[in-house]
Design brief:
Blueprint (H helix, E strand, L loop, with lengths): L10 E3 L4 H7 L7 H16 L19 E4 L3 H10 L2 E5 L6 H8 L4 E5 L7 H15 L2 H9 L3 H26 L6
Parallel strand pairs: 1-2, 2-3, 3-4
Helix pairs in contact: 2-3, 3-4, 6-7
């Protein structure tokens, strides 16, 4: 991809969160900081033509590819400054990005992930669903609250609790009725 769009490709790496990795995808989640460091250094070595364990690329990219580290917390932000060429922010707005960049500890590029293919009602609904889903993840909820969205995060949490309670109530009602009802 980098050769198809010279100078436009950036490789992003990140650990995500325990809730997303372990609870949503049922993949063990441990040691996010050292694993992200190891992955970034291994990928950097592979991309430069080196062998990493039993793996070596048949052909390394012609140009050096920038590696951006996804980060929100202070330790991962510092790691982005140590091993990355940039940092990727998710669900971060202009109020918090300068503060986060200051925590990186070095001068790096940054990217805030916001991709909306238009502003139609369908696109806005999809965006609301994504934001609401991540607002239920404690790590992202804290980040959103830190940006001034405490009330919105609380409202999403309350709506989720109501929806779960309603679903349980609906299931309990139907369980006792004959199948022809």
């Amino acid at each position: 991809m980098a050769e198809l769009a010279p100078g436009c490709f950036v490789l992003g790496l990140g650990s995500s969160t325990e809730v997303v990795v372990q609870q949503w995808f049922d993949v063990p989640f441990s040691r996010p900081l050292p694993r992200t460091r190891e992955a970034a250094l291994a990928v950097r070595a592979l991309l430069s033509g080196q062998r990493v364990r039993a793996m070596k690329l048949r052909r390394a990219p012609r140009a050096r590819l920038p590696i951006y580290i996804a980060a929100l917390g202070p330790k991962m932000l510092r790691l982005a400054g140590e091993v990355g060429d940039g940092v990727v922010f998710f669900l971060c707005g202009p109020r918090i990005i300068p503060e986060l960049l200051a925590e990186v500890g070095s001068d790096v590029d940054s990217v805030a992930l916001v991709v909306l293919p238009g502003l139609s009602a369908e696109v806005r609904l999809a965006a609301r669903r994504i934001i609401a889903t991540y607002a239920l993840v404690p790590f992202y909820a804290r980040s959103l609250a830190r940006q001034g969205f405490e009330d919105e995060v609380a409202a999403v949490g309350a709506a989720c609790i109501q929806a779960i309670a309603k679903r349980r109530l609906d299931r309990s009602r139907t369980r006792w009725w004959p199948s022809w009802c």
